[in-house]
Amino acid sequence: MFIVYLIIIFVLLVILDRLLKNAQFEKIPGPRGFFLVNNTLEVIREPVRLFRYLLYLSSKYKKIFRLKVGHKNIVIIYNPDDAEALINGTRYNSKGYLYGFIRPLLGDGLLLSDGEKWHHRRKILTPAFHFNILKNFYSILLENSEKLLERIEPEVSQPNTGILDIVSDYTLRSICETAMGTKLDEETTDFGITYKNCLSSLGSLSVRRGQRVWQYSDLIYYLTSLGQEFLSLLYITRKFRDDVIDKRIEDLCSKNIKRFDHEDDDVFVVNGKKKLAMLDLLLEAEKNGIIDRSGINDEVDTFMFEGHDTTATALQFTFMILANHQDIQNKIIEECNAILGSSDALPTMNDLTQMKYLDCCIKESLRMYPPVFFISRTSDGPIKLNSYECPKGTDVMLLIRVLHLRSDQFVEPYKYNPDRFMQEPTWHQFAYIPFSAGPRNCIGQKFAMLEMKLAVCMVLRRYRVLPVTKPEDIIFDLHITLRSKDPIFVKFEKR
Fold first, then answer.
1. Is 345 helix (H, G, I), strand (E, B) or coil?
2. Which of 29, 49, 191, 436 could form a disulfide with 45 if both were Cys (CB 3.0 to 4.6 A apart)?
3. What are the DSSP calls for 436-493, one per residue?
4. So what's the pLDDT on residue 261?
């Protein structure tokens, strides 16, 4: 009788397995997986090994492959035609299922929201990132770039320096003092260090949760030790966010502020000086009943994270790659000196605009090391990718770094060659998307490029950056942004 029960159970499992399969999805190439659990066991790896496994699959299946993890159908793409089909329009704007694991951190802000809420928030926030508005905050970026130089000064005598902490201080200060209108004092700076560390840990925990299908349920996850750790770290990040918002409200109440329209740009006047912070727009929208405090919290969480972490990651890899290419570093200095002269003159925004080669160097670094190395969307309806029909509800993941390193799009893709950006692009317009593309492209990309160009210009004019970590030394870790398993080091030398 026991054998009969086993046979019945086995038959039921076979029927269940077949019911859960989708014929169209199964036509897409991919690893076979195991009975009933499919590819679930293959993604339960150390993040470093999982990153390598995804790269292996992308080399084995040249344009597209599928994975079935738990109950989710996932299609992974990395060719420009499919990238265009996915992100060049509003049809597939819903964020992928796995983004739900960072929703407690970022809320329903601009990154994760969709539909009417996303469109409405984007409309509110767009004026804060207009290029003319960025001019009003350039002095803040300049001041923080000088603090960046001061931070580097004690490192000159050191054999190696971990670059990420240094540049993330610069980017966190910059996003707080511009988009949030809140200057970090000594106390909040110390808290900011804790905040940055918490964000990194929360990212790692989110990835680990995504690998373990039995932790997908909130009810189960928050009973685990990892779930409890996640909540503890989340409390710290929310405390930092609340302090930033409360400090800005206090500043607005204590100063004479009025608002007016100037050349169609929303501008705040503070003590006679034109200012506009993203947070100010949100607070005024709250006053007008357009958004509530929960919505403000979501947007601040999103921009505090996106506005400092991704830019710091980009700067880390840029300094690393420039340290390993002294000839290119010298060309940047030649360009800067030609525009600024050989004096210690500080660059203006117009000066930075003229630095075309520096711009290309950063773009090439973003091609090889895109901070946001993947995008995930859930298809609201069937989507055709690489001649395969993906059913409604499929999670489609675009591997941006693999896309950026395609040999059919870029000559010698693994070679750092800024000159490729000095000419008209020869590649597909969706083969290079470090700031995403389409309607959901990065709202702060002009701000980020300005911030990065200023930092690289200021640092290289005072210090020569020498190699310690080489590109071939880097072991990538799976995280929500591009991460190295080990710290990336450079060495600074006075010019």
1. coil
2. 49
3. B-GGGS-TTHHHHHHHHHHHHHHHHHHEEEEESS-GGG--EE-SSS-EESS--EEEEE
4. 42
Other C-beta atoms closer than 10 Å to the C-beta of 35 total 9
Residue where the block lists tokens 């300005």: 450
Output the pLDDT for position 287.
85
CA distances from residue 327 to 137, 382, 418, 454 in whole angstroms, order as listed:
33, 49, 12, 20
Instruction: State residue 260's pLDDT score.
Output: 37
**Cβ atoms of 248 and 217 closer than 8 Å:** no
- Alpha-carbon distance values, 194 to 238, 239, 297 (Å): 12, 11, 19
Pairing, β 395-399 against β 72-77: parallel
Q: Model's pTM, two decimal places?
A: 0.91
* CA-to-CA dists, residue 395 to 223, 384, 398, angstroms: 27, 13, 10
Give the pLDDT score at 268.
46
Query: Which uninterrupted H or E stretch holds 375?
Result: strand 374-378
State the pLDDT at residue 307.
Answer: 84
| Helix (H/G/I), strand (E/B), else coil: 34 | strand
* Contact criterion met (CB below 8 Å) for 142 and 451: no
Task: Using the structure block, give the residue that is written with the tokens 């710091």.
Answer: 312
CB 76 within 8 A of CB 66: yes
The first and second tokens of residue 156, run together, are 């000159």
Using DSSP's 3-state secondary structure scheme, residue 37 falls into: coil
pLDDT given for residue 192 in this prediction: 73
In the prediction, which pLDDT does 231 show? Answer: 95
- Our measurement of the distance from residue 483's CA atom to the centroid of its chain's CA atoms, rounded to an integer in Å, reads 11
CB neighbourhood size of 494 (10 A): 9
Among 234, 229, 251, 120, which residue's Cα sits nearest to residue 180? 251
Q: Which residues partner with 490 through β-bridges? A: 161, 467
Q: What is the DSSP letter of 21?
A: -
Q: Which of 311, 310, 320, 318 is nearest to 480 (CA)?
A: 310
Kindly give the parts of the chain with pLDDT less than 70: 1-2, 4-21, 36, 131-132, 185-191, 254-276
Cα torsion 305, 310, 311, 315: sign = positive
C-alpha angle 311-369-133 in degrees, rounded to nearest 5: 30
What distance, in Å, lies between the first and last C-alpha atoms of the chain? 84
d(CA 87, CA 398): 10
DSSP 3-state of 97: helix
Token pair recorded at residue 28: 């897409």
- Can you say how many angstroms the Cα of residue 319 is from the centroid of all Cα atoms in its chain? 18
DSSP state letters, 114-131: -HHHHHHHHHHHGGGG-H
Unique residue bearing structure tokens 């995930």: 376
